[in-house]
Design brief:
- The chain is mostly helical.
- The chain is built from 14 helices and no strands.
- Helix 2 crosses helix 14 and helix 5 packs antiparallel against helix 11.
- The chain is globular and about 75 Å long.
- This is Sugar ABC transporter permease.
- Belongs to the binding-protein-dependent transport system permease family.
């Protein structure tokens, strides 16, 4: 019997291996794809620190002829960017926490086969994926019914729930959390909240981290909500502020002659565009490695003894 198990294990190991030539080819291919993804962003960073006149004269180069902080000095000139950074960080952190809590609890409810209204709530949550109220309907609800115009909550609540993320978490609970753990907790007298916080959440870190990353990207990159609901410059998020700055500078540069201006030719329009990309992307690139360590499976392997 042991010999049969050993033979089966060896055959499975051989099945999962790849040959050395194939390994070299795959490594080279993935390395090339990685470079093709990273090199453009490196070029963007270099351009953002380059002198605008040299770029207009000689074009883009990986090694700039002259370094300059002019683009960043113009962006950070009046201090509005720092306020927007704080607003965006608050929106991202609070929105991610609220979204993860709401979607994880709702998905846990849908994953329980014993719950009486599971079918109704599943259909109710899937409906918005098929039929949307549209932008006008969303605007009426947020502004007229909820009264959240010029409120920071108008940037948080609309993105806090996602049917797609709920379905991902529901499937994760069903596939990764053994029913035997929940049943044994019931036998020991644990309540639903105790089961959720002490059993479900610790075993669901990969799924929760994935949803948290989706929410973080959504909140950090969101500018359209501010365009619809925010007129107060004190709570404008970073993405919307950077987009307005870039649009205004480009408009002034393109219409300098009509406006009777003579010094706008020195405006670093190209470097400002690249600086905007760096400022809007760098925080996400820094935060991503902290989420990636949870993108693994098998946390529940061995949780239930056979």
């Amino acid at each position: 019997m042991q010999e049969e198990k050993k033979t089966l294990g060896e055959s499975l190991n051989r099945f999962g291996r790849i040959s050395r030539p194939a390994n070299v080819v795959l490594t080279a291919f993935l390395g090339i794809m990685t470079l093709l993804s990273v090199i453009p962003f490196i070029l963007v960073i270099v351009i953002s620190f380059s002198d605008s006149e040299m770029i207009l004269k000689n074009g883009y180069k990986f090694i700039p002829e002259k370094f300059s902080l002019e683009a960043y000095q113009m962006i950070f000139a009046d201090g509005a960017v720092f306020k927007s950074f704080g607003t965006t960080i608050f929106i991202t952190v609070v929105g991610t926490l609220i979204g993860v809590f709401l979607m994880s609890t709702f998905a846990y409810t849908l994953s329980r086969r014993s719950y009486a209204y599971r079918g109704f709530l599943s259909k109710y949550s899937i409906m918005p994926m098929l039929f949307s109220g549209g932008m006008i309907g969303n605007y009426i609800v947020i502004v007229n019914i909820l009264g959240l115009r010029n409120s920071i909550w108008s940037l948080i609540l609309p993105l806090a729930m996602s049917t797609f993320s709920i379905m991902i978490l529901r499937t994760f609970y069903q596939m990764s959390v053994p029913e035997a753990l929940i049943e044994s907790a019931y036998v020991d007298g644990a309540s639903e909240w105790t089961i959720y916080f002490k059993i479900i959440l610790p075993l669901s870190l990969p799924g929760l981290a994935t949803i948290a990353l989706f929410l973080t990207l959504g909140y950090w990159n969101d500018w359209f909500s501010a365009l619809l609901y925010i007129d107060n410059n004190q709570i404008v998020p970073l993405q919307y502020l950077l987009m307005k700055m870039e649009t205004n500078i480009e408009f002034i540069a393109n219409n300098a002659g009509k406006m009777g201006l003579t010094t706008t030719g020195a405006l670093p329009t190209e470097t400002i565009k690249m600086a905007v990309v760096v400022l809007s992307t760098a925080p996400i690139l820094i935060a991503y490695p902290f989420f990636q360590k949870y993108f693994i499976g098998g946390l529940t392997v061995g949780a239930v003894k056979e």
